[in-house]
Amino acid sequence: MRITKVIHQVFHLIVWSSCASYTPKSEPLTEPYTLSSSNQTDTKAEALIRPYREPMQASMAETLCISSAAAVKGLPESTLGNAITDLLRNEIAFAGRMADICFLNTGGLRVEWPKGAITRNHVFELMPFENELVMVRMNRTQIDTFLAGVAAKGGAPLSGVQLSLDGLTVQSWSVLSKPDQRSYWLLTSDYLVNGGDKYNIQYEELLRLNIKVRDGIETALIQLNKRGETLNPKLDGRTKQIK
Amino acid sequence: MEEPNKSSSNRRQWIKAGLGFLALGAVSPHELIANEAKRGKRLSVLHTNDWHSRIDPFPQNDPKFPGQGGASRRARLIEQIRAEGGEVLLLDAGDIVQGTPYFNYYAGKPEIELMNLMRYDAATLGNHDFDNGVEGLKKMLSWARFPFVNCNYGWGDTRLEQWVKPSVIVRRGGLRIGILGVGLELGPLLPAENIKGIHYYDPIQKANSEALKLKKGKGCDLVICLSHLGYSYPDSKVSDRVLASQSRNIDAILGGHTHTFLEKPEVSLNLEGNSVIINQVGWAGLRLGRVNWQFSSCNNTNNKASAQIEDFKKSIAI
Fold it and tell me: SS3 breakdown of chain A: % helix, strand, coil, rounded to 5?
């Protein structure tokens, strides 16, 4: 028994010393594969996807509105951020009240939109989250704090405010519709009002619209289209760096 | 949690070869066989991150990625790589879901079923995998035929520990590959009710202790960390780069969250001056990352990682 143990240990030693630890060493590494139309598709995967895709397709392919230009992300302002926040501020009313400012976060707009037909699918992909719209009444100090957060991120999707930034701080701001009010109504999502994306939104009064942000965007696009208008994404200098 | 050795027939041959030693009644054949089998072994690690329910390719009129991506193409490419022979490991670094109507309609089922079809070996959790709360996540996990790993979340009374393990060991042709997972602080990103009971612990400390266990305790030949921390930040916030520099016993960090398109995997140095490979392949299933590992014979003790894409271009129609 003792001898077997010794032999056992000897063999362990031989085994381990002959091929002890492996120290990984890296060499120059190369680029990943890119998936494009030149790749073949997989029949099993196609068969798996089809029954999921088909029930969604008719509804998702429906055109809600036409966009006159591509809407893309960017800082300090962007065609996408301007288009979506303008759309919501101009089209969404609650109990007869229109918001003075509309704000969303850059990270919350998940894709960019093409020029041409905007479908329900585009709306789902832009705003896949189940967050709901809220309006909050904010005083000037509260807006100062909030806009400092916008500045710290180099800008954000924002409508109704002329904002001048000095680097990552606010130089000045004014609300276009009514420059000298004591307080303003801000339209945004419950996620952002609850501190999402590290924004600090303090307010005096909160109204829940009880509709999802996504449904709000869809409704707004349909209204626009009914009037024979298009979505017009453009930069207009609403948020600018002074340097 | 260990996966059965997929190359068991290969291993049986080695066991036969090792019978001579067994006759001595002394040596445990396992280490010997395992080490012999490592001679000249090659392992390809394929990885994805942040595919965000992007099952179909982007439409042709997409401003950034017209016609690119697509799960079916990825499945085919992976099959082609498997058909080359050699050992393949397929991993994902989280945020599998949220981003297309597929998730709103089906809560992650087709995404997970596609991952089953592609034979993923392991995945970690991203923040968006919690978008339907703990119950929604449990449903997703119940559809998966591959393990999920995370070692820096405490699960409280959510019972998610039944589904998500700190790490797994996958065996491939005599190699033992330890795979652990780390995630970012969920609090700032998710509504409190979605993550009720879940605690966040320091990912560096947890990853190092898990990696030590895998490499020194369980004798893993390679330790891979799946991370949803993010590639890098302008401040000192913990990221894959920060983790790499403060790590021990981790050979590669395959990451996600920041949707970073790295042109090539990056090599960083850990606390002991050993190299750590960091990679991340953007998002939306637009790319498939690949890192190859060579397990050299005992005379040459270094494993060599390389991504010999030129070789693959010859053998695969990409």
Answer: 40, 25, 35
- Residue A95: closest CA among A227, A187, A212: A187
Q: What is the C-alpha to C-alpha distance for residues B100 and A110, in angstroms, rounded to an integer?
A: 10
Exposure on the CB side of residue A50, measured as CA atoms within 13 A: 6
What is the C-alpha to C-alpha distance for residues B284 and B111, in angstroms, rounded to an integer? 12
pTM confidence score: 0.80
What is the DSSP-derived secondary structure letter of residue B217?
A: I
Find out whether A221 and A65 touch, Cβ atoms under 8 Å: yes
ipTM of the complex: 0.82
Q: Compare all CA atoms of chain B with the CA of A1 and give the residue at the minimum distance.
A: B26
- pLDDT of A22 reads 52
Chain A to chain B Cβ contacts (< 8 Å): 215
d(CA A101, CA A209): 15
Burial of B264: CB neighbours in 10 Å, binned 0-12, 13-18, 19+: middle
Residues B114 and B90: beta-carbon distance below 8 Å: no
**Which fold, A63-241?**
5'-nucleotidase;  domain 2 (3.90.780)
Q: How many CB atoms lie under 10 A from the CB of residue A1?
A: 4
Report d(CA A114, CA B138) in Å as an integer. Answer: 36
Strand A97-98 relative to strand A93-94, pairing: antiparallel
Token representation of residue A146? 């909030």
User: What is the three-class DSSP state of B306?
Assistant: strand
A23 touches chain B (CB under 8 A): yes
Domain boundaries along the sequence of chain A:
3-60, 63-241
Report the distance separating Cα B142 and Cα B183, nearest Å: 20
For chain A, state the CA radius of gyration: 27
Instruction: Dig out the tokens for B259 from the structure.
Output: 């949707």
- Judge whether residue A26 has pLDDT over 50: no
Instruction: For B35, name the nearest residue in chain A, comparing CA atoms only.
Output: A19
> What are the pLDDT digits (tens) for B7-20?
444 444 444 444 43
- DSSP assignment of B114-161, as one string? HHHHHT--EEE--GGGGTTHHHHHHHHHHH-SS-EE-SSEE-TTS-GG
Q: If you search the block for the tokens 């009037």, which residue do you land on?
A: A227
- Cβ–Cβ below 8 Å for B35 and A15: yes
Q: Which of the four pLDDT bands, split at 50, 70 and 90, describes residue A4?
A: low
Residue B4 touches partner A, C-beta closer than 8 Å: no
Mind listing the pLDDT tens digit for each residue in B191-244? 888 999 999 999 999 999 999 999 999 999 999 999 999 999 999 999 999 999
> Residue A24: what residue type?
P
The residue in chain A having the minimum alpha-carbon distance to the alpha carbon of residue B313 is A33
